[in-house]
C-alpha cells in the first residue's frame, strides 16, 4: 500500500445491519488498517442523509449508532481522521465554490438523478422531476467537496459508485483549469469487490427499503428467529444442495473466513446436512463475531455525552486540515 490518503464515508440513513458490515464497514476497517503510514479519513455523511430523512431525532440516532458501531468494531482513532460532515463546515463552503465551476449537464448525467427521472417516467408522471429535491440533484458536488477538501487520494467504492469519484475528478479539473492551478488532487477510485450488494433474508439485496435486513447488534435470540424464517427449497437433508442459490450460504459466505466458507460449501454439495443445521451454523457465526462488539456498542450508546466527546476529539485533525485547505482556496478565488 502506498502512502496516499484514503477517504470514505457512510450515510446515517438507518439502523446498521449485517449488509453494512460485510459490504462497507469491515472492508473499510481492513483497508485503513493496511495504511498506517498514510492518512485515513472516515466520515459520517449526515448532510447527505437529509435528502431522504426529515426527522432530526432519526438523523442524530443513526449518526450515533454508526459512530458507536465503528468504535465497537475497533476503529483505530490514532491513525484515522473520524468526523461528521457537520463537524467540518468548510465542506459546505467548498461545495458552493465547486458549484460555480460545475456544468449543469454533468449533474444531468448523475446516476441517482437519472434513476429518479426514469422512475417518474415509469409512473407516467407529468413532471419528470416530481419528488426530486436539489439535494439529490447536486449530490455529486457535495460528494466531490467531501473528497477534494482532504485531497482524498484513494476512494474505495463498489462498482456502482465509480461515477462519484469520476465526477470529483472532473470537477477538480474544472477548478484547476479555471484558476490555472494544481490546487486539488485528482482522486482515484479503488473498486472493492466486497463492497458489492450482500443478500438479505429474502434473497434480494439486503436493504432497509426491502425490510430484509439483520440488524448488526440485534439480541442473539431475536437474530436466530430471523434466520430461522429464511425461506429455502424443499430438499431433504440427505440430498446435495446448490450453495450459490441458497440465501443461508450466501450470508455465511459474506461473513466467514474462506476456509470456513469452503467447508460449508462442501457440506451443501455432498448432502447430509439439513437447512436447519445450516441456519444454526450461520447464527452461531454471527454470535461469535458480534458478542464482544455488541457489548461495546451498548456501552457507547448508553452514554451519548461520552460518545460526543470522543467524536469531537477524533474530528480535530480533519477540522485543522479543512481550515488550512479553505484558507488556500480563498486566496485563489479572491474571497
TrEMBL record:
InterPro entries in the record: aa-tRNA-synth_I_CS (IPR001412), aa-tRNA-synth_Ic (IPR002305), Rossmann-like_a/b/a_fold (IPR014729), Trp-tRNA-ligase (IPR002306), Trp-tRNA_synthetase (IPR050203)
Q: Does the keyword Hydrolase apply?
A: no
User: What Pfam family does this protein match (any one)?
Assistant: tRNA-synt_1b
Q: Which domain of life is it from?
A: Bacteria
**UniProt keywords, alphabetically:** Aminoacyl-tRNA synthetase, ATP-binding, Ligase, Nucleotide-binding, Protein biosynthesis
What CDD domains does this protein's entry cite?
A: TrpRS_core (cd00806)
Enzyme class comes to: ligase
Q: Where is the signal peptide?
A: none
Question: Listed GO cellular component terms?
Answer: cytosol
What molecular function terms (GO) are annotated for this protein? ATP binding; tryptophan-tRNA ligase activity
Give the family from UniProt. Belongs to the class-I aminoacyl-tRNA synthetase family.
The protein in question is named Tryptophan--tRNA ligase
Native organism is: Roseivivax sediminis
Amino acid at each position: 500500500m502506498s502512502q496516499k490518503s484514503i477517504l470514505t464515508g457512510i450515510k446515517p440513513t438507518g439502523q446498521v445491519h449485517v449488509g453494512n458490515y460485510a459490504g462497507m464497514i469491515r472492508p473499510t476497517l481492513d483497508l485503513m488498517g493496511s495504511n498506517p503510514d498514510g492518512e485515513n479519513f472516515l466520515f459520517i455523511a449526515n448532510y447527505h442523509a437529509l435528502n431522504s430523512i426529515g426527522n432530526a431525532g432519526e438523523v442524530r440516532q443513526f449518526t450515533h449508532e454508526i459512530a458507536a458501531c465503528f468504535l465497537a468494531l475497533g476503529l483505530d482513532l490514532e491513525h484515522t481522521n473520524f468526523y461528521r460532515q457537520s463537524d467540518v463546515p468548510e465542506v459546505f463552503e467548498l461545495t458552493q465554490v465547486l458549484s460555480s465551476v460545475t456544468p449543469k449537464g454533468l449533474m444531468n448525467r448523475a446516476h441517482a438523478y437519472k434513476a429518479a427521472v426514469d422512475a417518474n417516467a415509469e409512473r407516467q408522471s407529468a413532471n419528470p422531476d416530481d419528488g426530486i429535491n436539489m439535494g439529490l440533484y447536486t449530490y455529486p458536488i457535495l460528494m466531490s467537496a467531501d473528497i477534494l477538501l482532504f485531497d482524498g487520494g484513494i476512494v474505495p467504492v463498489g462498482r456502482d459508485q465509480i461515477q462519484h469519484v469520476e465526477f470529483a475528478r472532473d470537477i477538480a479539473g474544472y477548478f484547476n483549469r479555471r484558476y490555472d492551478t494544481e490546487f486539488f488532487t485528482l482522486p482515484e477510485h479503488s473498486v472493492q469487490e466486497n463492497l458489492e450488494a450482500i443478500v438479505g433474508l429474502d434473497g434480494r439485496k439486503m436493504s432497509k427499503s426491502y425490510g430484509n435486513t439483520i440488524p448488526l447488534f440485534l439480541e442473539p435470540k431475536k437474530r436466530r428467529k430471523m434466520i430461522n424464517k429464511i425461506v429455502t427449497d424443499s430438499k431433504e437433508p440427505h440430498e446435495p444442495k446448490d450453495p450459490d442459490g441458497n440465501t443461508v450460504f450466501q450470508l455465511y459466505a459474506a461473513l466467514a473466513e474462506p476456509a470456513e466458507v469452503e467447508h460449508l460449501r462442501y457440506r451443501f454439495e455432498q448432502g447430509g446436512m439439513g437447512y436447519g443445521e445450516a441456519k444454526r451454523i450461520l447464527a452461531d457465526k454471527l454470535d461469535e463475531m458480534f458478542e464482544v462488539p455488541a457489548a461495546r456498542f451498548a456501552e457507547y450508546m448508553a452514554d451519548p455525552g461520552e460518545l460526543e466527546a470522543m467524536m469531537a476529539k477524533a474530528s480535530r485533525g480533519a477540522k485543522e486540515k479543512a481550515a488550512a485547505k479553505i484558507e488556500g482556496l480563498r486566496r485563489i478565488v479572491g474571497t
